[in-house]
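Reply to dn_fold:

You asked what the input looked like. This is it:
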Amino acid sequence: MAVTQPILDLMLVDTHSTFSIGFADISQYPTNMPIVSPTIEITPSGFPTVSLEFNPNSINIYTSENFGFTCEGVPLQELPDGIYDVKYSIAPSYERFVVKSFIRIDKIMESFNTAFMKLDMMECDGPIQEQKRKELDTIYYYIQGAVAAANKCAPDLAIKMYRKANTMLTYFLKNKCNCI
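and this is what came back:
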């Protein structure tokens, strides 16, 4: 069945970097339809909305330079974790747009991966290691809960779960694995 009207959609792309965020255009466009004035408006967590160029049918990567919060003399800044509100539109924008919210978790996952890699899986004291693994599993559960809540348009719950995971992870890193 041929698409007669564009169906706009975006997907968050994991860039595996705390310095960038990516969005893939997974929209469906009618055959031979010109895509006019593609624009993305992004509201990074804790920062004002910026309107940026967007390349349809591709993956678009953005950094602190795009958002306007790069410090002088520093090429790139880490992007904050948290809720990012995104609006993708094409002309006429009043008819064709999609609005989505995503939670960025790159910084907390970097810390989680540090804790995980510092966990000595071969340690002889099995019960202690098992308890540490259970704590990391619980932290990961909260992180994934934050992602699920954000995907289901529950940003308050997403932030609550993210903060719980972050608190637990910070404690774990400082007190349980000699990671820092």
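Strands lie at 10-13, 20-25, 39-43, 50-53, 59-63, 82-90, 96-104.
Hope that clears it up.
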